[in-house]
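Researcher: I'm preparing a figure for a lab meeting and need a structural model of a single chain. I don't have an experimental structure, so a prediction will have to do for now. The sequence is pasted below. Please return the structure as tokens so I can convert it later.
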Amino acid sequence: TVRQDSHRLGQSLADLQHRVVQVIRGSTTEVDRREYPRYTIQQPARLRLTGQPEILVHVIDMSEGGARLTSNAAAPLGLIGWLEIAGVGFALPIEIVVATPQSEGCTISVRFTFDDQQSRAFAGTPARLTAGRVGQAVAA
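Model: Understood. Here is the structure written out token by token.
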């Protein structure tokens, strides 16, 4: 059917995008692309997107600038909202910058859209959430 073909095309495009990104990243290993180190968080959270029902997500890793999540639900690219993680103390304003369909669910990358006050309040949070854990910083 057209719907199935459309779904397969969407998956193929997402796979192609992922492969292109991997090739580019692999060819620029000498360049540190990230402004902040990422930390493995591995904890559940809630994603509240404007005009959408709440999505339960799992935070894979996080930096001062954003986070990588997994979810059983799709999340539309470009939407804004809030990420609520236990231990942070306030909802983190986010924008979805990558949403990659997987065989079961979706991998979602968000960037934090803090104002100055929120940025100061959040400073050091990824490291604090992983305090006492061994090997929590992850490579770019």
